[in-house]
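User: Hi! I'm working on a homework problem where we have to compare a predicted structure to a textbook description. Could you give me the structure for the chain below?
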Amino acid sequence: MYVNDKLSANFYGLFSGVFWGLSGVLLASLLRNDILSSYILVPIIIAFLNDLISFVYMFFYLSYKKTYRKILSILKNKNYFIITMAAIFGGPLGMSFYILSIKYIGIGYTAAISALYPAIGALISFFLLKDKIHKIGLFGLALAITCTIILGYSTTTQTIFGWIGFLFAFLCALGWGSEVVISSYGMNKNIPSDIAYLIRQLSSSLGYFIIIVVFIHSFPGVTHIFSDIKLTTLLLTTSLIATLSYLFYYRAIERLRPIRAMALNITYSVWAVIFAYLIMDEPISINLLFICTGISVGSFLTAINPINIKKLTYFIK
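Assistant: Happy to help. Predicted C-alpha cells:
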C-alpha cells in the first residue's frame, strides 16, 4: 500500500469514528421526543428505519458510480452470505442494543461501554482466526474491562434501568466485535467494501423487518416520525451521517484490516461525549472522560500490532 493510500485509509478509520459519535448523539436527540419515548420498542423501529434509509442512500450512490455489473456478479457469489451473517450481528443485534442502551443510560455511557468492542473483536479473532494477542494486548484488554466495570457500576447504582442499559451496551459491543471479524473475512473473498456495505444494510434491514413482524406485529411511532418534518429531517440526517461512518469504516477494514480499523474507530466514544456537549448541552463529566479514554486506550492496545508500537518508538527516538 502506497503512503497516500495508507494515509487515506487511516483517515477513513478516524472519520468513521467522528461520524459515528455524531450519529449516536443525533439518535439520542431523536429518542428524546416525548411521543416516541412512550413506545418501549421504538428504538428497534428507529434502527430498522436507519439501516433501510442507509441502504437507499448506498443504492443511489453505487448507481451513480455505475457498479451494476459488480453487484450482480457478487450476488452470484455464495460468499456474500458471509456479509449477511456479519450484518445480523452488527445490525438487528448490535445496533438494536446500542439504541436501547442510549434510551436507558444516555449516549455518553453507551458510547464508552460499547467502545469495548475492539477488545472483544480481538478475542474473537484469537479464538476463531487464531490471531495472536501480545502481552501489551492482554494489558489493554484488562484495562478496558476494568474501566467498563467501573463505568457500569457508576451507571447502575441508581436504578435498575442502569443495569439494563449497561447489559444492552455490552451486548452491542459483542455484536459489533463479531461483525468486524466476519465482514473482514467476507471482504477477503473479493467483495469490495462499498458493495459489502450495501449487502450489509440490505441484510440488516430484512433482519429488522422479520423481527418486527414476528415479535412486535406493528411499527409504533412511524406515523408520528414521518408526519413531523423536524423528526423526518433528523432521521434522514442521522441515517446519512451513519452511512458515511459505516462506509468509511468498511473501507478502513478492507485496507487496514479489522484490528487497526477498530483501533481508529473507537475514538467515537470521545467524539460522542464532545458532540453531546455541543448539541444537547449534556455536561462533560471528568470521570466519564477519564473512563472513556481508558476504555479507548485499552481497546486500542488490545487491537494494535506490537510491531507497530516498536516502529513508532523507534521513530520517536
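For your comparison, note the following. The chain is about 85% helix and 0% strand. The chain has one domain: 1-313. Good luck with the assignment!
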